[in-house]
Amino acid sequence: MSALILDGKAIAAAVRQELKATVTQFRAKGITPGLAVCLVGEDPASDVYVRNKVRACEEVGIRSVELRLPATTTQVELEALIDRWNADDTIDGILVQLPLPKGLDAGPIVARIATHKDVDGFGMENLGQLTAGKPALVACTPAGVMEILRRHSLNTGWSLRGKHAVVVGRSITVGRPMALLLLQANATVTICHSQTADLKSFVSSADLLVAAAGQRHLVQGDWVKPGAVVIDVGIHRGEDGKLSGDVDFAPAAALASAITPVPGGVGPMTIAMLLANTVQACQARRVGA
Ligand code: NDP
Fold first, then answer.
1. What is the 3-state secondary structure (H, E, C) of the chain?
2. Is 171 in the pocket of ligand 1 (CB under 6 A)?
3. 26-35, pLDDT tens digit by residue?
4. Which of 178, 181, 226, 241 is the most buried if burial means most Cβ atoms within 10 Å?
């Protein structure tokens, strides 16, 4: 294996340290950033995500408000909660853990979150800002990928400018915002999806590959262009409990110049960027430039 391992766990820890310093400055001015998180129902995976988010808030000094509601919660009750949090000056970011239980429609809930508190970046206003080339609050996973790439550039001199970036996946939460961020960073971007003919030919021409298809080992190692930077967003838990990604790691690492592992690559960055968005939202609304 020759590729440099892009250590998302270490980068996320560094981001949290930087945020802690910023939050300390805010608190010295009497302003404590606040993140409100709502979990509806009892999905075990969501439960772990919410606990991790709350713990990460504590670590950097962000105040978290955690509300757990029964699966019987109605759309009207959930919308009323969002309205309350929108009006609460001490709350800078609002997050409703998805997926919601059957019977609840996530679209109107996400749309109801005030744009300047939409720290997941899933609302239409924030997606529109990104599309217009004026990103405000950006979805956390693609923002985390950009932070990994930014530090890789700083450390090695590698540049995204003019490179061919291939994103596999076009979801609103990962693939699409990812492609727009790469475009913003002056890459030439191709988006692939389940209907793409000859995925291998696109992947093989990628200087930067971001795999976010949700298909274990979809990208075979020998598809990777020699010297490419490979970012694997996919997370899959095998029957043995082990995690793996969308990219067949070992053979890909033999060809790539740099690669993110699974686990320990993109995963830890998502929560770090949620905290970063909360601090950014607080700064924009309550602290000023
Ligand atoms: P979605 O299922 O919403 O989207 C998957 C995308 O991949 C779709 O656009 C789909 O195409 C495309 N796709 C599926 N199969 C193929 C294929 N065979 N060839 C090419 N494209 C394909 O998933 P998400 O975007 O939410 O997540 C993607 C992966 O990233 C998952 O493994 C998820 O667990 C992981 N993830 C990791 C996070 C982290 O923190 N590391 C955070 C969020 C997600 P089409 O649009 O045509 O259906």
1. CCCEECCHHHHHHHHHHHHHHHHHHHHHCCCCCEEEEEEECCCHHHHHHHHHHHHHHHHHCCEEEEEEECCCCCHHHHHHHHHHHHHCCCCCEEEECCCCCCCCCHHHHHHHCCHHHCCCCCCHHHHHHHHCCCCCCCCHHHHHHHHHHHHHHHHHCCCCCCCEEEEECCCCCCHHHHHHHHHHCCCEEEEECCCCCCHHHHHHCCCEEEECCCCCCCECHHHCCCCCEEEECCCEECCCCCEECCECHHHHHHHCCEECCCCCCCHHHHHHHHHHHHHHHHHHHHHCC
2. yes
3. 999 999 999 9
4. 178
